[in-house]
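Appendix B. Chain record.
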Amino acid sequence: MTGGIKKPIRALWGFLLALALAGVSTAATVTITGVPGSAAPSQSLSVNVNFTKTGSDKEQRLVFILELRQVGSNATLAKWTLDNSNAGYKGASGTIPFSVTIPSNTTGQVYFAAWASPWSVNRATVARYKAYPTNGTFTYLWSGGGYGVTQNLYYLSTLVAPKPSGNTTYCSGLAFDAFITAWKDYNTSYSHTLIGPISTATQMEAFRKIWYGVTDAEKLAARAIPDYSVGVEITDWEEAQEGDFVQLWRHSGSGHNPLFVSWIRNGSGTITGVNYWGSQGSTNGIGYNSESFGVSSGIDPARFYLGRPRKPRDQADYDWALGTGNTSASPTSITASVGDWRDY
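Structure tokens predicted for this chain:
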């Protein structure tokens, strides 16, 4: 294999991406309250979007979209988005208050529609990592392993991580591979060009050096992601989500850069270890592994870091929505405002 993914892997990725883009079964209930039975053009309203997660989706942070639509044609008359200052809303349930204004040219009957949408791009990352073979196609090689990626990785047509001569990988290289390729396919699906605000190949190269530990000796991927405004570092372990990028250090001094899959908990629910996906010696390349936290051996809990990329606002907000609700069963009638010439 030279310079690309084998055809079976591409086919599997296409299938998984199609499933991801098709959305999931309702994972949150969404209702809208505070909507009056009648309103006037240019009137300001306070409308609440209420949500409750059902537990069937792993997305931890949400963005909320509210639209005003015309009854009959369903044409969108206005749109508002709240993302908690770009940080997303956390929690299993809540009420998101919207301050909206009815457009001045609105007539007839209207209704509100709302969506609870993913904040992160993790769904694409998860689909991507599950498409890599775990059958020994790509073995493990750290010393002398070059960039440790499965294919030539380009950004804005510039080669930023060349594939080694053999099918060898290591942790940072494979994680960076999954990051870049997940974004590439996501961007292709939703007509984007950039990863976050990274606007040049030179910036991507600097980003990669932090990720690989060339210019950072502690957090690596979990630092590169927030440093370049691609996402955030996750510091609350209970917020960890499949597809987050991990940098861990063991008490022995060795480190690892895999993708988070799930926590290991004891009978009391306390986190005792982590399940992850990556490239490591124990699986001789790409595979799943588990490790435990410890006081003097195993993973050092004080040196365990998580980074999560944020997705842009686009059609995926609707395609990936955890839940949606609307007031079409109780529409709002738009009447002439007080003092309008039609009142005389």
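Further analysis of this model is presented in Appendix C.
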